[in-house]
Amino acid sequence: MTIISTKGTLDMAYPPFILASTAAALGWNVSVFFTFYGLDLLKKKLDLKVSPLGNPAMPMKMPMGPEWLRKTNLPIPNVLMAGIPGFETAATSMMKETLKQKGVASIEELRELALEAEVKMVACQMTVDLFGHDKADFIDGISEWVGAASFLPTAQKADVNLFV
Fold first, then answer.
1. Is 53 helix (H, G, I), strand (E, B) or coil?
2. What is the percent of the chain with per-residue pLDDT over 70, rounded to a whole number?
3. For position 53, what pLDDT does the model report?
4. What is the rounded CA–CA span in Å between residue 8 and residue 46?
5. What is d(CA 147, CA 17) in angstroms, rounded to the nearest whole number?
6. Transmembrane residues, as ranges (predicted)?
7. How far is CA 94 from the centre of its chain?
């Protein structure tokens, strides 16, 4: 299985690590190519945020308060989210609290599980160069620092290819 991870937000960090670690647990060979903002998921220090702006499918739920409020989707229009200072910080805090209350592993924990399961973490060298990243800021365990031309033959041979 190959996965291409392109997004570096908290909500989009979960799919590649959950899918990769699950497939590896099933005995699959898995490679994840982290490119553009997805490359941030391989940094030692993570500061991931959730951005509800531009994501109309994302419900806003309160992680605290009475049961009826926690189960209620709060339909907040994107135009309103954009105009409220600190909305992204509040949404991130609510998401982190909900993940904690539900016992969902952190991104750091899922990433470590994937590495322990021998998932190959492949960093896009072109993105490193483009954004001026310092390789010292990234975790140990990155299998390769390559471009798309080097990763695509791996994807071509895979039975399952996912883009997240």
1. coil
2. 84
3. 66
4. 10
5. 21
6. 17-39
7. 17
Largest CA-CA distance found in the chain, in angstroms, rounded: 52
DSSP state of 43: B
Instruction: Report the alpha-carbon distance of residue 122 to residue 1 in Å, rounded.
Output: 13
Is residue 136 within 8 Å of 123, Cβ to Cβ? no
Instruction: Return the number of other C-beta atoms located less than 10 Å from residue 69's C-beta.
Output: 12
The structure tokens listed for 145 are 């620092």
Report, in this order, helix, strand and coil percent for the chain, each rounded to 5: 50, 15, 40
Contact yes or no for 69/106 (Cβ under 8 A) = no
Model confidence over 119-134: pLDDT tens digits? 999 999 999 999 999 9
Report in angstroms the alpha-carbon separations of 80 from 10, 22, 90, 137: 21, 38, 14, 36
Each residue's pLDDT tens digit, 41-57: 999 999 999 876 666 65
What stretches of 38-77 show up as alpha helix (H) in DSSP?
Answer: 67-70
Residue 64 has which token pair? 């605290």
d(CA 73, CA 48): 23
User: Which pTM value belongs to this model?
Assistant: 0.85
Convert the pLDDT of each residue in 135-161 to its tens digit. Answer: 999 999 999 999 999 999 999 999 999
| Structure token digits, residue 52 | 């509800």
